[in-house]
Each structure stands twice: as C-alpha cells, then as structure tokens.
Amino acid sequence: MSRFVQILESRTLLTATNSSLAAELATVNTNAAAVKADLATLTATAKVDMKAIATDLKGTSKTNVPLLKKLQGDENKWLTKIKNNTNALLRAAPLSAKGVADGDAFLAAPTKLSLQSKIVGDVNALNVATTAPLAALTADIPSATISADVTALTTANPTNTTLAADASRITISLLQTQIGPGVSQAISITDSGHLVSDAGSFSTAVSALNTDLATLEPAPTTTPSLVGDYKGTMKTKGFIFGIGATKVSFELDITSQTLDSVEGKIIVDGQTASGTITSRELTNGKVNLTLDDSGVTITLNGKVNVTPTAQGLPPGSVISGSGSISIAGFSIDGDFSATKTT
Predict the structure, then answer these.
(1) 260 and 139, same structural domain?
(2) Would you say the pTM of this structure is higher than 0.90?
(3) Average pLDDT, integer, range 19-31
(4) Could you tell me what percent of the chain has a pLDDT over 70?
(5) How confident is the model at residue 193 (pLDDT cuts 50, 70, 90)?
(6) Residues 13, 148: one domain?
(7) Could you tell me the residue range of the domain that residue 244 belongs to?
(8) 216, 240, 264 - which closes a domain
(9) CA gyration radius, the chain
(10) What is the pLDDT averaged over residues 267-293?
(11) Contact 16, 176 (CB under 8 A)
(12) What is the DSSP letter of 277?
C-alpha cells in the first residue's frame, strides 16, 4: 500500500474538492458584489436626502445653520463607520480566494504537507474574518445622534412640511433596516436593511467555504506509527551562545498507540517515567506528548518524519522537537532528537 493511500485512510475523509471550493468562492464573490452595491446605494441615498434637506432650509432662519451643520457632520461620521465596517467585512473575500488557492494546491499535491500547513492559517483567519465587522455594522445602523439632530431641525421648523418629509427619509431608510409591518402595511426593506441582509449572506457564504476548507486541515492519525523504541539525546539551550548547554541521553519507548494516547516509557539521563501518555499525532507529522501525574510532568512538542529521510529511513523513524521533563526532582528543558531502533 502506498504512503499516500495510508495517509488518506488514517485521517478524516476529505470532503472538499476543487469543484466545491470553486462553487463556494463564486457564492462568496457574488455576495460581496451585492454588499458593495448596497453600500454604494446607501451612500448615494444619504447624499440625496441631505441635499434635499439643505434645499428645504434655504431662505429660512439663520438659526438653522448650526443645526444643519451638526446633522451633516454626524451623518458623515455615521457613513464613515458604516463604510469601515463594510470594508472590514469584505476583507474576507480575498482571504477566501487565498484559502481556495491553497486548497486547490494541496488537492493537486496531497503529499506536500507544507501546503496543508497554509490551510490551517487560512481556516484560522476566516474563522474570525466576518464576525466582528458584521456585528459592528448591525449595531451601528441605528444612530440616536442623527435621530436627535433630525428632531432638533424639524422641531425648530414645525410648519416646514417638506423638511419633515425629507427628514423622515433619513430616520427611515438609513437608520432602520425595515419599515412595518403595520396596519395594511407590508414589510419594506430599507437601503440599510439590504446592506445588513446581504452582509449576513456574505458571512454565511464565507463560513460555508471555510467549513469545507477545514476538511483539508491536518487530522489526528496513527500513521506513521509511533510504536517503537526511539533513542537519542536531549540538549538544554544554555545561557548564551550555547554556553552552559547540557546534553543527556533521551529514550522514548512506545508499546502501543491510539488517536489520543500512547503507552510506554520515557527515559532521560537515567530517569524513567512510564504509563499512559496523552498524545496527538497529526497527518502533517506534528506530535504532542503530555503527562502530569504523581510528580511527573512531561510536555514534548515535535514532529515525526512522514516521508523517507535523506538517509532513506522510512516514515515514523525520526522524532524531534522541544519540551520539558520533570521526573522525581530531576528537570530538564531543551531540544530532543531520537531515531527509532526497533
């Protein structure tokens, strides 16, 4: 059986395909285009409404000037926040494209585990790409400040019915996401409502793509097997430029392995700890071993070779990394490297 087939059999079944990723990215891009169009419409609407209010106030009392300036200033600040939130949200689009490109590359070369490591970064980035911007966009749509500015203007001009009508469009189409329902009134989605709705659809599309992409991440495995007796050394880092570094014997003798633990013993400079050790091996070769029991504390993080070494040793032959070990008062912290002898 080939090593590639072994890897596929030992990990979670891949569900992402080039076609599925392409379709999901197309949905992301379609929704991104809708969000951009909504933002442009909202901005244009705000400009038209503000121009109408300025026209309504021409020739009226000079006391309206500071009231209008305050409304204009607060609306500009509001629009800036909405634009910033929307642009922050849309950064998930190029992140999605990068994730798909990395996914396609890995699907084309599934034994090249460096490509798989890129997918981990892509998934982590997409996990948080839309949550905060979407929440901020939704929260910032209502604005008590602008509402107060509009009220101040209409209160100062109670007989200006044209102003009242134009001002109401700001409080309705900009600061609310829908109109109604009411008596004999159907629900009507406002410009802000379309923006929030399409932003939500965009976020959902990004999440769907990310869920699919995550199936290509490294998965727990027992291949290559860690069962065997690894012997080598562990070296402390020293104080400066390697001065004071200490090298001691290191042995990791594993007799059995599951997806979340190994049985065996660790011997460091003659000090032995044995029993069940919590472990995690991933398809990209990363290995983690931890034990905290009865005065024994072990934390080892490293990698096992998943391809033949330059010396021709088969997968699972060399394990190396760094960590700390404390056994019965003996403690060491440093780098280790060991080769399987049996």
Answers:
(1) no
(2) no
(3) 98
(4) 91
(5) very high
(6) yes
(7) 228-340
(8) 216
(9) 31
(10) 92
(11) no
(12) E
